Amino acid sequence: MSIKFKLLAATAALSLVLGACGKAEESETKPKVENKEKSAEKKEAEQTEEVDYAKVFSEAITELDKAKEGKDVDFAKVTDLYNKNLKELVQNRDAEFEDTLDEKITAALTAGKDGSMDKVVVRQIFDKLMQKVFYTSIKHDFTEVTEKWGKTDEVNGELEEAKGYYAILKSTVEKRDAAYGTNLVSVIDGGFNEIETAIKNNDQLSFNLGKQVVDKTLMKTFYLATGALPNGYATKTAAEAKEDAVAAKVEQAEGWAFFQSLYSYLNSHAAEETAFIEKSFTLESDVKALDPAAVNKAFVRGFAKIAISEYSESKEFLEKGEDKAAVTGLEGALFIDIIGEDIKTLLGEDAYKTLNEKAQKYVDTAKAKDKAAGDAQLNDLISTLNTIVEKAK
Asked: Are 309 and 329 in contact (CB under 8 A)?
């Protein structure tokens, strides 16, 4: 890869765009800003009928892709497409998740137009930050399903909208499947199928389980794209830096932009690890100093800590005999799955297999609301996860 661009100018511009991450809290248990969210819902519903997000996004990316070929990019066209068709959706998600994606996307497009940021970098930032918008829009629609539960037509409408957003992200999932030999597309399809069946059967617990499968598998997709070994952007950036430090900045920017879809959830449970990963990807850091192994271990510790937190919550719900014990139990299992290959490296394949089986068994225990068995299983799971955190240091 050989890309020449104004490194100093690009770094200066990116310090504005990639500076402080949004303070989004994407945890599903975090209360929403009700007034902002509700006032945006009607507008978003009206806009959804008028805007084909997939078509507009594809058109914008097609224009930005000219940068990869060394051609001129019509930034006025891309900006117009964004402002007229995508901006309101981005602003709605910013309001809901307390984020600043509109500011970052607008700054990147402006910097691309005035030449202060490399066109390829702008393309990657626009692409990956919009992917975060589509991802959080799926989460938004799942929340709407919960709030509208029992109103079949409205619920099905929200589900179809969520599937539409996923269709835009599917190529990213497919790329990770190709790179790692995983079956993420199949898992997500299974999650959506479970949701559809749950709606038909008026089974809210199954809906909550299905939406966790979709959500956490998308999170796994973003992890495989950023910090997983050997094909994440941390590894790609470090390898590129040995050949061309200037070109490596493009890879670093792409890693940063992909990481934004994970930032808030990870930061709410593992702030130290999140700060390290963020610093490693930001263009203000020395690209030659990026350590993919250290980034990977930070991710592993972070996701293990999230799993511990989910199991701790599950224990509380199980004590109360609530269905949420099974939901948070499944979340714990899904976060273990996210770093499954890393756990095999740290503990061995047999140990991972045993851990995974125990995690699945606990979900069944939580569904059965067996407090005695569940308590012992949770202590065992948390103990193993603490061992993983220590070994990943």
From this structure: no
Which of 283, 287, 279 has the alpha carbon at shortest distance from 242? 287
Residue 121: half-sphere exposure toward Cβ, Cα within 13 Å: 35
Length of the chain equals 393
Q: How far apart are CA 327 and CA 307, in angstroms?
A: 12
Token pair listed for 21:
């991450």
What's the CA gap between 264 and 302, in Å, rounded?
A: 12
Tell me the C-alpha distance between 350 and 317, whole Å. 30
Report the predicted TM-score, pTM, of the whole model to 2 decimal places.
0.90
Tokens of 122: 């702008």
Burial of 240 per CB tally in 10 Å (0-12, 13-18, 19+):
buried
Mapping DSSP to helix (H, G, I), strand (E, B) and coil, where does residue 181 land?
Answer: coil
Least confident of 144-148, 280-284, 372-376: 280-284
Residues 6+ apart with CB under 8 A from 381: 307, 311, 332, 355, 358, 359, 362
Question: Which residues are CB-contacts of 90 (< 8 A; sequence separation ≥ 6)?
Answer: 101, 102, 105, 130, 133
Please say whether the beta carbons of 166 and 188 come within 8 A: yes
The pLDDT, as a whole number, for residue 283 is 86
Q: Is 274 exposed, middle or buried (0-12, 13-18, 19+ CB in 10 A)?
A: buried
